[in-house]
Protein: Branched chain amino acid ABC transporter substrate-binding protein
Amino acid sequence: MYALHRRVLAAGIAALCLAGGPHAAAQAAEIRFGYAGPLTGPQSHYGEDMQNGLTLALEEANKQGIKIDGDTARFVLVSRDDQADPRVGVQVAQQLVDEEVVGILGHFNSGTTIPASRVYHEAGLPQIAMATSPEYTRQGYETTFRMMTSDTQQGAAVGKFMVETLKAKKIAIIDDRTAYGQGLADEVEKAVKAAGGTVARREYTTDKATDFNAILTNVKGVAPDAIFYGGLDAQSGPMKRQLVSLGIKAPLVSGEMTRSDTYLKLAGDAAEGTYASLAGVPLEQMSAGKEFAQRYEARFKKAPGVYAPYAYDGAWTMITAIQKADSADPSDYLPELAKIDRKGATSEHIAYDKNGDLKEISVTIYQVRDGKWQMVQTMVSQAN
Structure:
């Protein structure tokens, strides 16, 4: 697909150059990446943060004047709003394929990424996604790669933390039934049991709910030592308020979607004491996190969120694979992507296993103290 697109462009460029059109040469090396994420709605702050990280990487690459197949490359991001909706996600995936992009940097949510990944696989397009659900890279597609640690790895760390560090032997688990929320909760449940704890109650809600009193009343009845929630900050914020109003003292523990400023605003004073895991390490502990934050703030006039540095590294990983192949044809650079090992903003060694999961496993636990997210502990290891 890409090779044909280049040939068509080359023919047009040759004609324009004969007519004295110098600008056409720059267009010959345009390399288009597709991005899809939630750019509207309650999850738009996640999608914008991810898009900003990608944008910064591509702008920096363009300033370097990178040569691909003899031409100076101009990297372009083609963005689509998938609304965090699986049906819309498949639709925009096909739109991006039709736009003749050469690679996909997205989606954000696991629920949109998994069905969209089939579209990209059938088109032969490499995809580096933020999605953390284990199912994403278990499909057997050679085109799927991650920007962050998977929920299998994150859930194992969180379950162990609750039982061994918080000394919580009896745990209640709630999830929002999304691919992300349920997948993470399932992994946490396995880890709790493996660490010697018990799951006293398992409850379910949706990613649109705001009233959790009935669920929390059921949870209160089993007197858990801790409560884990797999889902978004739009739900965990009001959920924590309702936990406090019901007099439930057990700490709320959640995943990276809760570790946000939005959660702090939604939960208010009730946020105090909440724990949340984050795949990765704190920005200040990243390989080049401080420098990344400075460049991000200079460009966007605000501090980066959780996902921006991982998106930034995802974009540079795809660019680096194209450089190594000296080609933006997906069939040429996909093998280079699979065997890559590079230093990025988030890690000294960004490399993938045979499934497309990151070889380096890093998970950090945070707690809300004095109204701010503060680090509790970081766990870094290598996948087997």
